[in-house]
TrEMBL record:
InterPro entries: AAA+_ATPase, ABC_carbohydrate_import_ATPase, ABC_transporter-like_ATP-bd, ABC_transporter-like_CS, P-loop_NTPase. The keyword ATP-binding applies. It is a peripheral membrane protein. Keywords: ATP-binding, Cell membrane, Membrane, Nucleotide-binding, Repeat, Sugar transport, Translocase, Transport. Residues 3-245, 254-501 form the ABC transporter domain. Its main location: membrane. The keyword ATP-binding applies. Gene3D superfamilies: P-loop containing nucleotide triphosphate hydrolases (3.40.50.300). This is Monosaccharide ABC transporter ATP-binding protein, CUT2 family. GO terms for cellular component: plasma membrane. One of its GO terms (molecular function) is ATP binding. SMART domains: AAA. It is found in: Cell membrane.
Amino acid sequence: MSASNASVVLSVGGIGKTYTQPVLAGIDLTLHRGEVLALTGENGAGKSTLSKIIAGLEVPTLGHMHFRGQAYAPGSRTQAERLGIRMVMQELNLLPTLTVAENLFLDNLPSHFGWVSRKQLRKAAIEAMAQVGLEAIDPDTLVADLGVGHQQMVEIARNLIGDCHVLILDEPTAMLTAREVDMLFAQIERLQARGVAIVYISHRLEELARVAQRIAVLRDGRLVCVEPIANYSSEQLVNLMVGRELGDALDMGIRTLGETALKVSGLGRSDKVREVSFEVRQGEIFGISGLIGAGRTELLRLIYGADVPDSGTVALGSPAQVVSIRSPVEAVRHGIALITEDRKGEGLLLTQSISANIGLGNMDRVSRAGILNAPDESALAQRQIDAMGIRSSGPRQIVSQLSGGNQQKVVIGRWLERDCSVLLFDEPTRGIDIGAKFDIYRLLGNLTRQGKALVVVSSDLRELMLICDRIGVLSAGRLIDTFERDSWSQEQLLAAAFAGYQKRDALLAEATPKDAS
């Protein structure tokens, strides 16, 4: 056996998977000890399906696998984990009301005569947490009290307990700050040094170039590239992923701004959102930037009536008329839509069809006297499938079987049928591949040409700078500054994002001596 073959931990040959239609075909791939293999491709290309087959969550329709030289055909995730193949999925699998230690060993709590040994549990948790650089975290801390980044690291630590030979990370940095990303990458280097093979799934090409040695690109269920990542530029990888040039897809088109459509004045709630005021005109995209925890999502929820403000008003139209919005139902009646950042938890019924999900917000269009008209529901869904290019087998396909990008289009399609005049988008392209992002950008451009007023929250500054007419920056709950197109820079936006926290910290420092006395 050659040295190269000896280093192979996992190999898959001819792997195929068919649901209502083929989603994977003829996948041949090897994974070596101590390497990071980047796995990328458009949403719907088959990344998650291939990963779930390796991790025992799905059974392939065709093909075979070998793990450490032996035939490998796990019947469940538990079987795969016992062999040392683990997967950290995008949706964290932690129980927020339990401690870090309890989450780490939930399936194997150390006990004597039925009583959990807290001393042994704490000791084991400290050892597990040290593997991922969490020595500073008390294992008795409730998971709910941790930030998302630390929760992500706890999830990784949980998957490293016992022997781990293959670790699959699915979009691990989607909700992490830059500092937390650095911490994650430092741990990946430590895992590599231990010989753990890592499959790193991401759409962030700059991250892949930083962390991976090889890259595998999937397109339409087939591998189109398995090469050293250093051989490709970001532009070349994008072209491989989507099978076409995307250059002119960045053009958002000419925008004609109309009258004021939305006016927010002095809106506030506790210390999350503080006296925020701004206006958005017809045909305008107003971006909202800021650090995680700055109050961006909370602001949208106040406008939409999901939370009740302590102060301030929301006005619509020109001249602006103050409206009372105390619930999402009232917001929708006034023509305001919210496309939430958590499309799976708050935006979709995952076990239902496309037609059911789109019809959900348009029951008056698909029912008579309280009785659902299935043909009308299907016709309405098909209209959005065609208009938005939703990749599916038809209106009856279950939404959970769609890729992230196509799921997001289903959510947006529901609101387009209602013809809302103000649309609030919270992280509309999170977890979506580059090709699907351009589809969403084109959709936003089309909406502005229809005279819609759009408010877009995004953690991606480059995205906001690409699509927005103006960008407001939230910091510590306050709108620090608003920048016009062509008069902003990434440095200015970042400086504004930190400014509110610096001012708050300075005020706290001044107040401390007085409090102490």
